[in-house]
Fold this sequence. Notes:
InterPro entries: DUF2071. By secondary structure, the chain is mainly beta.
Amino acid sequence: MSFLKAEWNNLAMINYEVDPEILQKYVPKGTELDFWNGKCYVSFIGFLFEKVRVLGIKIPFHSDFEEVNLRFYVRHLDNGVWKRGAVFISEIVPKYAISFVANTFYNEQYQTLPMKHTLKVNENSREFIYQWKVSNNWNTIHVTTDKMPIAIEPDSEAEFITEHYFGYTKINENETFEYQVTHPRWQQFEVTNNNSKIDFEGVYGKEFAFIADLEPTSVFLAIGSKITIEDKRKL
């Protein structure tokens, strides 16, 4: 039985190229940074975590909520095969119990903050808005997209960002947890406008304040799907 079954829907993905040296201290043992066309990325993602069941059980008042995370990409060589995965620097949700379960059982970096979202379907477009409150200030991911879905092209940056099917967690300098995430290949809505306003220093500290001065390499909206998260194992 999968540890968790759910849906990840309407994933607004804002992607930045960064100096890989910035991320080295976060790279779990047994993995290495994963590059696309020589570029090292972090992604800032807002989405809806819905229809959550943990070990088959629906937890009252904790089955549908927003999440915002900051992640980067690694790979792990397992019996001659590269597994491509993500490492999460920060994950924000509005439910304390979600943070407790993720931090306790998966050693993740969840924190609990006030959050809200708005989804709009207009005549010729869609809007996706995710907000979270830090120090009495609301941060906002706000993207406008075309109305009709399109494919995520093979060998594209969007494919690189979305097609990572493992999570890796740095327990300490010598220990790493791996867990598998399963989902079908996603489609996307093409983003036509990005009006996001994020206080990177206020949310993530001085170390990541520099992101505020960067232009995203891409912004897109992955439609999402049902997913599973399998039980962890130690590398």
